[in-house]
Design a protein that fits this description.
The chain is of the alpha/beta class. The chain contains 18 helices and 22 strands. It is globular. It is found in: Cell membrane.
Length: 514
């Protein structure tokens, strides 16, 4: 099936999310849409899938104009979509989820799932999915849940599959398996629109790459294009994708976590008996698929979790049981994973956000009075140092792009002497050029002798920044390994295998390949 978009424009008020985009997806082709978060990729696909109506432009299927008033009409035309956040009911079986919206009712008004089960088994066998139609979805690994989403589309005879950031929640092994599945679908004549910001994956699987920046198509590329070329297209200037950093020179161990346990409201241990150290002048990266206790770990350190036991010490001082304000006063810098909710006050100015952790201290305050001139001077210095793109220091922080918001948070946290720096998803939603800058700044903090803890679900980022890597799985520590540990070993650890076992299995597999 041939799919074509002509002059697609989507406006939300004065915001132009898509600006006269042209795109052609040929039958049996993997066509990648590459661009930074916020570039307009997902908006474009939501238009194609009938979730949004285009402000201007035409969609053609097999050279005939079509209009979709909703996903049902898109599916009826042979277009299926696997969203970044799965559209599954956790307590339903695979068959029940696949049947949703396409139910067959038998005698007595009872749902007839026999035909659905048969189709699931057929598709599962054809593509090697290994999916049990009667399994409860919430009991399945994330990678298998994603296969259920693909099966949902294929059961409805999708000829074009839209995969929106499909590897965001997968382990490296699951990512490789998905890329293999995409190859099988392509060989079967299916077309795939692969939406991603990950250069390595796009290069590995694409026939054609279309790059979108700020809502516009800025170029197309062959998969043989270098990552540097693709990155430059994404951000509009040349960037370095390799972080240059000297080997760590760890000093005294000043941050210690012992037997840390965090209990959820239902009593489940979301962090389960963690123990680790970080020395001055080193970066410990916490790796793992999102949702394996990383958020609760950082929140426990910062005093944001209630049901916590164990010990967290910094320079010999116990942090457990202290308030967030006390932890910050002890010299802990913290960049939360959701900057817009936890890192900034969107309605406050850039200048005000830059002093949120010191607004009542000299030199920004004298007694009960704040000192506007000093606050403004500080803002101008930080805006220049961190290259924050803003109309003025008085602009509301919520009006800035994601990357510039992150720079404001980083600038604030690095504006005082630190005894510990923690950053959770430090470059999520940040363009390639800003990533380069923020990574250098994190390494500079390490080189200044600060213990640094980075939490990231991006394995490339972990490998780029880490001096040592700790892997979490279901709240437990699978091991702490050197920064040069292979992706294969890290992937096995992220799937729940302890470090020594993962290393042995990876070594055995490599031996078998020789």
């Amino acid at each position: 099936m041939k799919l074509e978009l002509k002059g697609i424009t989507k406006r939300f008020g004065s915001l132009v999310a898509n600006d006269h985009i042209d795109l052609v997806v040929e039958p049996g082709q993997v066509h990648s849409l590459l661009g930074e978060n916020g570039a307009g990729k997902s908006t474009l696909m939501n238009v194609l899938y009938g979730l949004y109506q285009p402000t201007e432009g035409t969609i053609l299927v097999n050279d005939k104009p079509v209009t979709f008033s909703g996903p049902g009409e898109a599916m009826a035309s042979g277009i299926g979509m696997v969203h970044q956040h799965f559209m599954l009911v956790p307590v339903f079986t695979v068959a029940e989820n696949v049947a949703l919206g396409n139910e067959s009712v038998g005698a007595g008004g009872i749902l007839n799932l026999a035909e659905t089960r048969t189709r699931i088994r057929q598709i599962s066998d054809q593509y090697g999915f290994d999916v049990d139609p009667d399994a409860i979805v919430e009991d399945l690994p994330v990678g298998v849940q994603q296969r259920v989403e693909i099966i949902k589309a294929l059961v409805r005879d999708a000829e074009v599959l839209i995969l929106d950031e499909p590897t965001a929640v997968l382990t490296p092994k699951e990512t490789d398996e998905l890329l293999g599945i995409m190859g099988q679908l392509k060989a079967d004549g299916k077309s795939i629109v692969f939406i991603s910001h990950k250069l390595r994956e796009v290069k590995a699987v694409s026939d054609v790459i279309t790059v979108i920046r700020r809502g516009k198509v800025v170029g197309t590329a062959e998969p043989g294009a270098s990552t540097t070329e693709l990155a430059s297209l994404m951000v509009g200037r040349s960037v370095s994708l390799t972080l240059q950093k000297a080997p760590a020179a760890p000093g005294e161990v000043t941050f210690k976590v012992r037997d840390l346990t965090v209990r959820a409201a239902n009593g489940q241990h979301v962090v389960d008996g963690l123990s680790f150290d970080i020395a001055q002048g080193e970066i410990l990266a916490i790796a793992g698929v999102q949702g394996n206790g990383q958020t609760e770990l950082t929140e426990a350190i910062m005093g944001l979790q209630e049901h916590v036991s164990g010990s967290i010490t910094l320079d010999g001082e116990e942090l457990l049981g202290r308030s967030v304000r006390d932890v910050i006063k002890e010299g802990v810098g913290f960049v939360p994973e959701d900057r817009s909710v936890e890192g900034l006050v969107g309605t406050f100015s850039v200048a005000e956000n830059l002093i949120l952790n010191r607004y009542d201290e000299a030199p920004f305050a004298r007694g009960l009075s704040m000192r506007p001139a000093v606050i403004e001077k500080n803002a101008q210095e930080k805006i220049a140092e961190y290259d924050v793109r803003t109309q003025s220091a008085a602009a509301a922080a919520g009006t800035l792009s994601g990357g510039n918001q992150q720079k404001v948070v980083m600038a604030r946290e690095f504006s005082r002497p630190l005894k510990l720096f923690i950053a959770s998803q430090p470059t999520r939603g940040v363009d390639v050029g800003s990533i380069e800058f923020l990574h250098k700044r994190i390494v500079a903090e390490r080189d200044g002798g600060t213990p640094v803890m980075i939490v990231s679900t991006e394995l490339d980022e972990v490998l780029e920044l880490a001096d040592r890597i700790a892997v979490l799985y279901r709240g437990r520590l699978m091991g702490i390994v050197p920064a040069d540990t292979s992706r294969d070993v890290l992937g096995l650890m992220m799937a729940g295998m302890h470090a020594d076992e993962a290393l042995a299995q990876a070594t055995e597999l490599q031996g078998g390949d020789q």
